[in-house]
Amino acid sequence: MNRIVVVGYGPTAHRLVETLYERGFDGRVTVIGEEPRPAYDRVALTSYLSGISVEDLTYPVPPGTVTRLGGRVTGIDREARTVTLADGSAEPYDVLVLATGSAPFVPPVPGAEHAYVYRTIDDLDAIRMAAKDATEGVVVGGGLLGLEAADALRGLGLKTHIVEMSPWLMPRQVDEGGGSVLKGHIEALGLSVHAGAGVQEIVAGERGVTGLRKPDGTLLDAQIVVFSAGIRPRDELARTSGLDVGERGGITVDAGMRTSDPAIYAIGECALAGGMVYGLVGPCFTMAEVAADRILGGAATFDGADLSTKLKLLGVEVAQFGAMDGALDVTYMDPVAGVYKRLFISDDAKTLLGGICVGDASPYSALRPFVGKPLPAAPSDLLFSGSGAELDLPDDAQVCSCNNVSAGTVRTAIADKALTDVPGIKACTRAGTTCGSCVPMLKQLLEKSGVEVSKALCEHFTYSRAELYDIVKVRGITTFSELISAHGEGRGCDICKPAVASILASLHNGHVLDGERAALQDTNDAFLANIQKNGTYSVVPRIPGGEITPDKLIVIGEVARDFGLYTKITGGQRIDLFGARVEQLPQIWRRLVDAGFESGHAYGKALRTVKSCVGSAWCRYGVQDSVGLAIDLELRYRGLRAPHKLKSAVSGCARECAEARSKDFGIIATEQGWNLYVGGNGGFKPRHADLLAADLSTEELIRTIDRFVMFYIRTADRLQRTAAWLESLDGGLDYLRQVIIDDSLGICAELDAQMEYHVATYVDEWQTTIDDPEKLGRFVSFVNAPGVPDPSIVFETERDQIKPVEVAAR
Amino acid sequence: MSSWIPVCGYQALLPERGVCALVDGRQVAVFRTYDGTVHAIDNLDPFSGAQVLSRGIVGTRRGEPTVASPLHKQVFSLVSGECLDEPGFAVPVYPIRVDGGLVQVGMGV
Ligand SMILES: Cc1cc2nc3c(=O)[nH]c(=O)nc-3n(C[C@H](O)[C@H](O)[C@H](O)COP(=O)(O)OP(=O)(O)OC[C@H]3O[C@@H](n4cnc5c(N)ncnc54)[C@H](O)[C@@H]3O)c2cc1C
Ligand code: SF4
Ligand code: FES
C-alpha cells in the first residue's frame, strides 16, 4: 500500500494529502487535477475578482506530493488498478481516492451553451473578459452561490438581475420572513430580484447573448448570463467503472468513506455519505481527515456534519444554524433596519434547536455551539446577545464547524501552548482558518482564559497608538516629555517617539523640528530628506498631480547637475535626487524653494503624492479633469502627518490609467462625478481598494476623503497602512460608511474641523527651515568641522551617474 | 599620547539628539541624554557600514540609555556600546566629559 492516487485537486484533495503527510505517511501520493493549477481556496473564490491573486488563494503543495496538473481522468480499470487519463497515459494505484467535487448544474434550456458558470478561476477569468463589453447581467439562482455570483457581476460594474425559482432567496438557509428582509437589502443595492421565476430561454444574436426570457414572456436585457442553480456531484467515473452511486447522484460511501470497491475511497462534494451530499467545505474537510485516518489503518468515522452557515453576501449578514423549524419559535423582525432573527426551541421550551438571522448575524457565533443543548439564557435575551461574552460554552460545544473544533480543544491549546492571540489558535487547532465566522468566538475564549491581549506600543507605553492619540487630544498634551512622564515609563525609543511625534503633528501641526519635537523624529524627518544606504540623503520636491512646467523641470535638472546628484523618476510621478550630504541639503533647498518648489514629504509618514492620468483635458476617453482634482487634493492634504504614508491617485475614466485602486484613497471619474475607493495598497501585500461611495460631486468627495483620512489618523495603529486598518476595523467598510457618511458616532463635525485646521495652518517645512539659522545649524556632517564633508562617502559611476561605493558591512 | 579633545560647547548639544565630531580622523557620535549626561560612541554602524549612528533616535531600554541605528533600527547601549538586539555586535565607546562648558572626547585616556 504505497501508491495513493487522488483524482481531483480541490480543497478536499488538498486536505487529504496534507493530513496524510502530517500523520507520517511516507509513500507516494499522486494527485491528478483537471484544473491547470494546484488546489486553491474555492470558498474565497470571489475575492479573486477584487484583486486577490491566484498565489494568495493557492494552498501550498505538501512536499513529496506528485502533481499532474491539467490532467483529466477518463476511466478506472478496477481489475488492473490503474486510472487512465485523457492524454492516454495511465497511473497505477494501490489506493484510489476520488475527490472530484461537483459541477454547476446548467438546466437544458435553449441557449444554455451561451451561459457562464461560477466555480473555478478560469470561469471567473472568462466572466471578467465578457464583462468588459457588457452593461447588464443575469444570475440564474438565488442561493448562496448565486448571490455571490451576483455580487461579482455588480462588482464588475454590471446592472444585475437575480432569477430564483423558489418564492424567496436562499431557500436552503432562510425562511420566508428572512427571505423578504434579504430581498429588501439586495434591492436597495440596485440589483433586481425576480423570485418565483424560471428561465424560458437565453436569447442570443450574432454578437452574443442579448437577454434572458422568463416563462411569462418578459425579457431581461443582458449580455452575460451566469448559471448558479445548484450543483451536481461529479460521479461520472464511478458510474462508468461500476461503483455504487445514489439515485440522485453522488458516489455511495460507508462511514469510513470507502466506496463499494474497498480499494477506492470517495470524499468531498462528490461523495454520498449517510445518504447526503454535502455542499459545504467543512464536512468535506472532515471526510478527508476520516479517509486519511482509514488509509493509515485507523478507524475514524464520518457521522454527518453541521450545515450551519454564516455569510456576508452583498454586505448583508445571513446565518443559519441547527434546525429550520421547531415546536416553538421566537421571532424578531425590524423591516426598517432590515433585521430578521428567529430561534427554534423544543416544545418544553428548554432546548435550542436552531435559528435564522438576516441583517445581523451577531447571535450566530455565540448560539451555534448551544444547538441541542439547554438554552443558556432567556430566548429574547439571546436574540440580542451580540457578543455572547456572558455565555459559558461547554467543552464539547463545537466552535468551528468548518474544521470541527470544540471549545474544549481550543481551551486546551490556549493553556498547553501558552497561546496569546488568534493567529496562534489558528495555527495550533485550525479553528478559524476557513470561513472565519468563528473568529469572534475564538477571541472570547482567549479573553475568558485570562490571556491579556497586549496592545502596548512598546516597553515605554502600555497604550496602543489610538489610545495615546485620545490621551494627547483629551488632555491637551503638547510635548513628548509631558506624555511620557504622566502616562509612560523611561525616555522612549525609536518606536514610540516617532509615533508620538506623528500624533502631535496631526493634532497641533507646527514645525516638526520645533523645540523638543526635533529629538523625536526619525532621521528622515530630522533632516527632511530620505536616508540612503551610505548615509547620504535623497531629495524629492513636490510636483502636485505630476504636472510640471518645462521651466521647473529645468531647475530640477540644474540643481541635480550642480550638486552631482543621481536622478530617477519615481512611481509617484515626481523626481528623486540622490546622493546629497547633510550639509548640502539646505543649499539644494534654497535653490528649489527660490524656484517655487515645496517639500514633497517623501521622508514623512504623511501624504506622498496624488498621481493622475492626463484626464479629460487631453485624453479622448476622459470624462473628468483628473489632473485638476489631483492637484487640488495634493495641495489640500500636503504635510498631513499620519500613522503611515498615504498615497492617492485620480483616473479620468474607468480605464483607470492612474492605478487609483492600488492607493490608500483612489478616485475614478464617472459620467456623473467621482467614485471613491479606499484601503488599496501596492507593495508586498497588494490589495485593491474598496468602493466607499459612488458618483460623488467634487465637494462631497473632498468631505468624504477629509473624514476618511482623519478617522484613520485617529484610530489606526502605528505603521498601519489604510489597507490593514480597514481590514481590522470591526464592521469593515459598512462601519466606516456609518461613521464618516452617516455620522453614527457624532464625530464628523470634529473630523471636518481638524482637517480645516490642518489646511489653514499648513506651511512648507523646507521654506521655514532655511529661514531659521538655529535649525540650519544642525545640517552639518561634523559639529567641530562644519565645512568638512564626510570623507567616508564615496561614489563610483554607473550609466553616467553616481552610485554609492559598496562598503564592507558586519 | 593621550589627550582630551574639545569638540563643541555643551549648549550645542540638544537633549536626546546626537552630533558627530571628527576626532583624530575618527568619527565620534556624541549624545546628551534627557538628564544631561553625555556619551560618546563610534559613529560607524556595524550593520550597514555607514557613518550614521549620531543620527539615530535616542531613548532608553529598561532604563539604559540607547540609540537606534537610523538605517535598520538595531539598538545600541550608549554606556557599553553593545548592540542590544543582536548580541555579539558592539561599537567602541569613548571617554567623554564636560569641562568649563566644553564637551571633550578622550583619545587614549
Ligand atoms: C463561489 C463559491 C463560494 C463558496 N462559498 C462557500 C462558503 O462560504 N462556505 C462553504 O462551506 N463552502 C463554500 N463553497 C463550497 C466549497 O467551495 C466546496 O465545498 C469545496 O470546494 C469542495 O471541495 P472539493 O475538493 O470536494 O471539490 P471541488 O472544489 O469541486 O474540487 C474538485 C476538483 O476536482 C477536479 N476534477 C473533477 N473531475 C476530475 C477528473 N475526472 N479528473 C481530474 N480532475 C477532476 C475539478 O476540476 C476540481 O478542481 C463555495 C463554492 C463556490 C464555487
Ligand atoms: S484613465 Fe481614462 S481619462 Fe485617464 S488617461 Fe486613461 S483612458 Fe484617459
Ligand atoms: S467556522 Fe468556518 S473557520 Fe471556523
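^ FE2/S2 (inorganic) cluster complex. Chain A touches chain B through 39 residues (CB under 8 Å). Residues 3-103+233-295 of chain A form a domain with the FAD/NAD(P)-binding domain fold (CATH 3.50.50.60).
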